Amino acid sequence: MNHTFRKLLFASLVLLAFDGSQAQAQTPPNSMRTDAPQSVNGLPSWNSSLSFEQLGRTADSLLLGIHNIDQIEFSMRGDRIASDVRLQLEYTPSPALLPLLSHLRVYLNDVLMSVVPIEKDQLGRKTVQQVALDPRLISDFNRVRLEFIGHYSDVCEDPANSALWLNVSRASHVVIQEQALMLKNDLANFPLPFFDARGQGRAVVNMVFATSPTLGEQRAAGILASYFGSLASWRGTQFPVLFDQLPTVNENNRAMPSIVFASNDHRPELLADLQKYPPVQAPVVQMIDNPADPYSKVLLVLGRNDEDLTTAARALALGGKLFGGSQVTLDNVRQLQTRQPYDAPNWMRTDRPVRFAELIKYPEQLQVSGLRPPPITLEVKLPPDLFVWLNRGVPLQTKYRYTAPSTDDASQLNISLNNQFISSLPLLKSSSNQLKGLSLTMLSDESISASDKLLVPALKIEDRNTLRFDFNFASTVSSAQRGRCQTSLPAANQAVIDEESTIDLSGYYHFIAMPDLKAFVRSGFPYSRMADLSETLVMVQNQGSATQISTLLETLAGISAHTGLPAFGLRLSDDWNALSKVDADLLVLGSMPKELRRSQDLTRLLDHTRAWISNPLSQQAGGFSAFAGELDDKRNSGSNPAEVFTGAPIAAIVGLQSPFYSQRSIVAFLASNDGDYQLLRELLNDSGKLDAMTGSVALIRSSGVSSWRVGEQYFVGYLPWWLLLWFQLSGHPMVLAAMTAISMLLGAFLLWRVLRWAARRRLADDQ
């Protein structure tokens, strides 16, 4: 019996058991349920409300006569079952529609759930309508399809008439009553229940240690946190840290999983019973029930020492799907293949042409159909240091097929990148198989070029790019005139972008101006250059607090969310004296040591930032802004900032060059107490605040994020000498003009000397 069938069977039993109570407690048509956890007959229960915007709709959907179908996909965790599902629709119909004759069909997984008539009093007005969906049809992946049937006349209609429309708001909701399933203690389900890609919300996993976790325990937890981060991707992750206890089980956090890290010599108190949890002789992974809640699981990561804990964490991140049973003893873990720079799974390859088949996320992504088919989009994620300055263009070989129109009309394929138009290709009757070679001219990012205005305006390539193909069919589907009615059945247009189409970014160098906090928050750069963080050293404080360790774990998870690979090569240290011997990019949590100070400007920057952090009761409201302007513009602003006395938390993120290796960078998370670290945690889980970070310094307060570019830039990467010289001169047009003039004068002088020599020789030959 497969898992999906068991979920359907359980749903049927739940419906039979609670049919009476559900009938009495049905939600009124225009109300919304809360998301507070509940308990039904002792079973953990949740009311999940997912808006269309949360499900990926950034704008309202407009259904037309020739584009009358829309669908929303949502998934459901494997450890939960649906007992009640409702669709709350918010829509506005056209005022020109015929009431009752016009209606909306609602399908769940291709099964008709309801027909919603459009009544007279709804025309032109926003309407909220609730539709009950059958929970027995809910599986791991679900589709809600809306079909608009619109009429503006009882005879002779044109399906392309502008009066036929219905606007579905992105504020519409899918409301699901979920109940927990009791899972066996079987590691074959891992990473369930600690993470499930079918879940819509942020992954939350409790990390439990003995008091004063060792660096080895934090390293093992960091590897597992990065593993969950690589799976969670855009969903985000949170890792609350506890010492010597499991989280309290109550109605607000039931069924919250936990992971416990313990060695034979350093165990939390909950594993103090050596009869029940004897010392281990090898790395061991064991799944048990939470003693206070059988619906909550606890994963024990056990070992003789810290090295065993790291081995167990790597094994879980590598081959957890091969495990089985409630306990696994690890004899050996295979060696990992050495990673290469820029080989992150989430980044497009830049060493060869890449087929579209390597970029798609689901099988039918490159296919569309309909009179007005939706666009085909491809996400292209690139390293942020890709140097595309003064390039000749990115080759794009596009192969596509389509239903040939009846005549050579205005049908066309529009291609755009990041909402910027590239080219338009005609869709002709004579041929439905096309191969076009295009050159996508790109412009480098602001962080590379000192002055964009010196360059010819062109399309911009970024670390996250969207390539879009719009098939527009202009064929006539019907004709209606006064006194003459003529209709025709529209053709079912099909269009495909072939998977063998390619985009080629090979041959470009890697070169970027640093420090750049924008590159860090958007791509995890420079640490993500090696996807396994094998060239990263994380510096932490000795005896870190629970909030500080949570900040560390969520930072590592965020980097792996960009790369798609766990941090198998993670290294942690608290020995500041050994930094000069390690050729690695540094990630610092806490305070900045004196060993990392080199230049006078840098020392002043760190002193000023540290003063803000360590002395929150005497902060200068405008002092840092004036100081940043003084360093950046090389002049004293002359301001006399006023002192503001406040006890509010404040933290900072500073980017700078390593004083030991010119090609290495440092990003420091500066905080002094748990309140400051909590600000950093909130920042890491807030996409809006992360987008506000740029430059080399970011101050984080409860009111928001302020960023500055302070000090001199440095460059990381490689360029050949001739290209580097040309790039440096591009920022100094007067110097370039002077060099051009001198070169012309020198060339003219040499030419004059050669001509004089030739003249003298000719005269000598004549004599």
Radius of gyration: 31 Å
> Oligomeric status of the shown chains?
single chain
Beta content: 25-35%
Structural class: alpha+beta
**Tally of alpha and pi helices:** 11
Round the mean pLDDT to the nearest integer and report it: 80
Shape: flat
Q: How many structural units, i.e. domains? A: 5
Unreliable stretches covering 5 or more consecutive residues: 8-37, 442-459, 616-646
Helix content: 10-25%
Largest sheet: 7 strands, antiparallel
Structure notes:
It is built from eleven helices and 45 strands. By secondary structure, the protein is α+β, with helices and mostly antiparallel strands. The strands form eleven sheets. Strands 1, 2, 3, 5, 8, 10 and 11 form a seven-stranded antiparallel beta sheet that branches. Strands 37-36-38-42-41-43-44 form a seven-stranded mixed beta sheet. The longest helix is centred in the C-terminal third of the chain and has 34 residues, at 733-766. It is flat. It starts with a helix and ends with a helix. 35% of the residues are buried. Mean pLDDT is 80; it is low at 8-37, 442-459 and 616-646.
